[in-house]
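Sample intake sheet
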Amino acid sequence: MNPNHDPAPAVQEIQGLDGAFTFPEHTLQRIWARGELDDTAAQVTGGARVRVLHPGRWNRLGVPDFRQARLRLGDGEVTGDVELHLQAGDWEAHGHEVDPAYAGVVLHAVLFPPAKPTVCRRCDGAVLPELVLLPLLRRGLEEYAAEQAVENLAQRPGVPGLEALAALPPEERDQCLRLHAERRWLLKVHHAAVRIARLGWNEACYQTALEILGYRFNREPMLRIAGRWPLADWARPGFSAEEAIAAEAGRWVVQGVRPANRPRERLRQYAAWVAARPDWPARLEALGPGLVATDGDPGRPANGVLRRGFTAATGVGEVGGGRFDNLVCDGFLPLLEARTGCEAFARWSQWRAGDGPEFLHGFARLLGGRGGAGLRPRTQGFVQGVLGWIIERDRRNRL
């Protein structure tokens, strides 16, 4: 084995809410690169506090994983390389303790805590501080894995195999898509419940909203802003969105981002949102009972009526188009079911799809007049059902 190169990329299989899923080391590297860690109380082995001032340059084609990271370690600041692994034992398993290529590593970051205390040494004998990342993640592993799968799909110009799905009898296709849509929905509600339990209702709503406003390229800077400035800060006199924008200077992605989705515009919209309804999470919660009634019940408002209700209750009026639909389907509805127990799947599945991979529009055209009586193309249930079907097919092909 070439000592300067790792073996094949590590992948961990984990049992999740909807069966086993894989979590590759590349996804962990991506989390580190985007700074999606809550390191406000992070400690390395031995108890020293650590803050990630800059994650370093992602060394995708070489070793170590990140070069020239800046860390505040204890009372001092260090600059050097960072190596990431899923398990603490991977450092020695990959031979890094005798490899001069890793002589500049100043931190070994691992996903899972070791079963017993370990000592990680460089080739010069120096003991490396080790940081366990699992407690620092802002979301669950299954949520990261699902998000990575969807992001991989979004980058594809097309998806082979959709013709086979389109060729199914309409009733069979509808049943298949509904099953996958229900699974995707349950995962979203589960993740919302975890976030509420960790942050409380108000902050869970706030962080979810900023994350969605940051889709797809600026969600991590948005989450860091949400962690630094709680919801109450946005409502206090004198607070400016410019302060939050400046705090993430150099980390915003604007190239290839449509003007309406650029962070300055989205944060300006959120500031107006909070100014209009500083108590918007409480107002959102009050909408929950209106979702419970079944179709055909005169007490159940139509989606258009509820859309206006969301706008009036939350003050989200300045956010329009597909991003508003993302807020409802990825944020408001899962949060409401997790919080109040209202049955929102039927509402969610019939809601207009928000921003999504371009190939889904082509698939809707491919169906043409072959659509069944169930999920209509360009609804959330249809889109999520197709995404779920593709992700499951890809997972099976990897087995």
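Comment: Strands lie at 11-16, 19-24, 50-54, 57-58, 66-73, 76-85, 105-110, 120-121, 127-128, 130-132. Residues 387 and 395 are 12 Å apart (CA to CA).
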